[in-house]
Amino acid sequence: xxxxxxxxxxxxxxxxxxxxxxxxxxxxxxxxxxxxxxxxxxxxxxxxxxxxxxxxxxxxxxxxxxxxxxxxxxxxxxxxxxxxxxxxxxxxxxxxxxxxxxxxxxxxxxxxxxxxxxxxxxxxxxxxxxxxxxxxxxxxxxxxxxxxxxxxxxxxxxxxxxxxxxxxxxxxxxxxxxxxxxxxxxxxxxxxx
Length: 193
Ligand SMILES: Nc1ncnc2c1ncn2[C@@H]1O[C@H](COP(=O)(O)OP(=O)(O)O)[C@@H](O)[C@H]1O
Ligand SMILES: Cc1cn([C@H]2C[C@H](O)[C@@H](COP(=O)(O)O)O2)c(=O)[nH]c1=O
Ligand SMILES: [Zn+2]
Known about the structure:
Layout: H1 4-7, E1 15-21, H2 27-40, E2 45-50, E3 60-62, E4 68-70, E5 72-74, H3 77-82, E6 89-92, H4 102-111, E7 115-121, H5 133-139, E8 142-146, E9 148-149, E10 156-157, E11 159-162, E12 178-181, H6 183-192
Parallel strand pairs: 1-7, 1-8, 2-5, 2-6, 6-7
Antiparallel strand pairs: 3-4, 9-10, 11-12
Helix pairs in contact: 4-5
The protein binds adenosine-5'-diphosphate, ligand LXEULUCI and zinc ion.
Keywords: ATP-binding, Cytoplasm, DNA synthesis, Kinase, Metal-binding, Nucleotide-binding, Transferase, Zinc
GO molecular function: ATP binding; thymidine kinase activity; zinc ion binding
Subcellular location: Cytoplasm
């Protein structure tokens, strides 16, 4: 769980918070936890996700444990700016799927005094930094990297290993398609192939 004393989370000041890590690392749960606490503080919260992420639901952000919160699916980062008027806190899930314009959009929103909380995969299945995530980490006021448990050895996992043969960077999936692995196990699995 994140240390809210460090974050001074209900301060009504513009800032950018990034929650990154591999699949199953708890990014969405941490995002939902922060957004719900902002709602308890009676702050106006808007939540966005990329329209392509239809895994569990078209209109909700849903964690692997099926915790959910209503969200607005958007096609392009510019829609986030257009649909954010009046918001005090903005949540964005699956940020890796957005276009690079998301970096400027988030900077612009934070400059207007809005708290922007972003969750996304830091790396794809090849361990390549994913979409706008490196740029978002660079401009963030606060970055936390969360970790899943390696399904082979039980250590902390950094990587999302793809189990199926598909070379495209974007491929929606769950436990049938991906597993979280630590560095040692990721390299072992790769060398077995
Ligand atoms: N190998 C694993 N390590 C940790 N959590 C896992 C694992 N496999 C499944 N989970 C579940 O996934 C949940 C995290 O889901 P979620 O917040 O949606 O993660 P993320 O958004 O990072 O993919 C955990 O609370 C746990 O119940
Ligand atoms: C590694 C990797 C993942 N994806 C997809 C698979 C899932 O649909 C999402 C990640 O969801 P999570 O909330 O972080 O579990 O991204 C992908 O398209 N490409 C990849 O390389
Ligand atoms: Zn391992």
